[in-house]
Amino acid sequence: MICNLCPLKYNIAMEKQGKPAEKLKACRFILYTELTSDPAVAGLYGLLSAEDAETAAGHYAAVLSAVLSAGCDSLNEYLLHKVLHCDNAFSRAAAAGLYPGGISGVLLSAAEIDLKTIDNLSRLSAGGFIKKFGLDMPAWASHGVISFSARDIAGRYREGGCGALFGKAAFTYDAVNKKLLPVRHADPIRIESLKGYHGEKQAVISNTESFIKGYPAQNVLLYGDRGTGKSSTVHAVLNKFSDKGLRLIELSRCDIYALAHLLDILGDYPYKFIIFIDDLSFDEEDGDFAVLKAVLEGSVRRSRNALIYATSNRRHLVRESFSGRAGDDVHAADTKDQLLSLSDRFGLTVTFINPDKAEYLKIARQIANERGIQMSDAELYAYAERFALIKGGRSPRVAKQLADIIESAVKLKKEIILD
d(Cα 29, Cα 163) in Å, to the nearest integer? Predict the structure, then answer.
């Protein structure tokens, strides 16, 4: 079979037999079809069939450009990166921990054939091409021996995921192109860094833990005042459980219409997902209201591996107007109940309210201590109260912003200026 032979050896063998090198084009991947159109892979096969220096130079440049553009400098590192981000039947099964017993013999054989081909490609030496065609280009490196055996690749999938989900825990959803996009720099906040609200945080943690373990769990509405840590709590919970297979997909408020399709996509992955909708609210005539309500009510499209966590400053999520109340709806009471019922569809509502003065000052002191800010209580509290007046209220966010200002001023040896 062509696919499990070293491309270079195959090329030489064909030349010795007087057969055209174009036969290499017959090599196709069975599972890793994404690599067929990869510029580096295409460039390698182009190099192997090149007959003149000009053609070879173009293919060589394509390979080197692809490798360097990916942040690599070695071919085997680049190919490993591509393999780990491939989404196919084998990568998903391995990510779910089914290797080897839960994977059929045919699937495993197909994966082994493809990975052998990729392994052979990864061993191609830049020096050989440079010498053969007299290319004046730098050589790609080779970082030691990288194993492309099915067993080792399956282990990497099991540890880090596969496809778009490999190595990342937080994503956004591109509703237009129907794609998951990894968040390169996710919020690293930890539960321990969030001050106050112990009971509120514990409610979200406990629900998430039940979800991960396969026990009954609820969709969650985190409702309350701005700056109290609702969104930060969700991100902190993700960081706490990401190593247990939890992933977070942030869905924009304007993309709620795509929620049903997103649930279909997530259903194929061996993970637990939180679909996070931040700052959720609706107008009375908003059509997306019905979409979310249907999902929360447990329609036919009920997800086995996804929950919705939403934050809002509105208890009932729907912005009402006096003109709406004065409308000519014959069954106005029923309509109002319908609008106000959405929040009831969340099985767990956790309320975050602004702290009183004593709690606010306590939070400010705790954050200052963590930052190593050496300041007396009297001085810190004076700054904290003044800053709260400027910001229009007391909240953990205000306390954190104050700490940022003080820390920067101290490190720069400048006066603390609040306004």
Answer: 17
